[in-house]
Specification:
Elements: H1 2-22, E1 24-26, E2 28-35, E3 38-42, E4 48-49, E5 55-57, E6 60-64, E7 69-74, E8 81-85, E9 90-99, E10 104-120, E11 129-133, E12 138-140, E13 144-150
Parallel strand pairs: 10-11
Antiparallel strand pairs: 1-9, 2-5, 2-7, 3-4, 3-6, 6-9, 7-8, 8-10, 9-10, 10-13, 11-12
């Protein structure tokens, strides 16, 4: 009987936790254009060719080689932004979530190297976030067009 009570309590806890997590829904970034060598990887997987109409999810990374670029549409409750990943760049989609009940969304792009040009629409909620992280800073925006560049460190720095 004690075991049955413990199992019931654990199941209740799991149900409550899943309801809390269910408030956040995953969003995607879709590749609208790709030219040259554009690759992506999921989590700690290996690099593979990326192509137009491919959807990238939270935790995925995209990179471009020389003379290449990719244009992404980051969606949400409405199109949130377009992100042009310029040549010789690498960027992780670190956070792409929406809380449909609270009408908020959170976007965090982690630019490890290279340059991105972002055209972000005005956010619908004061609690929504659109941020770009670099090795030295985090930039938050409310709606604008801007570019972020991360240069490779020279040897010995």
């Amino acid at each position: 009987m004690k075991i049955l009570k413990v199992v019931a309590i654990v199941l209740c806890a799991v149900c409550i936790a899943s309801v809390a997590v269910a408030a956040d829904t995953a969003r995607v970034a879709k590749i609208l254009e790709a030219q040259g060598t554009v690759e992506m990887k999921t989590g700690s997987g290996s690099w593979m060719p990326a192509s137009v109409d491919m959807e990238l999810k939270q935790g995925d990374t995209i990179r471009t080689k020389s003379n290449s670029f990719a244009l992404l549409n980051v969606d949400g409750m409405a199109q949130t932004a377009t992100v042009e990943v310029k040549q010789n760049s690498e960027m992780e989609l670190a956070q792409l979530v929406a809380d449909n009940k609270a009408m908020t969304q959170s976007t965090l792009l982690d630019l490890a190297l290279g340059e991105v040009l972002i055209k972000a629409k005005k956010l619908h909620s004061e609690k929504s976030r659109f941020e770009v992280k670099t090795p030295t800073s985090i930039v938050g925006v409310r709606g604008t067009t801007f570019s972020v560049t991360v240069e490779a460190q020279a040897e010995g720095e």
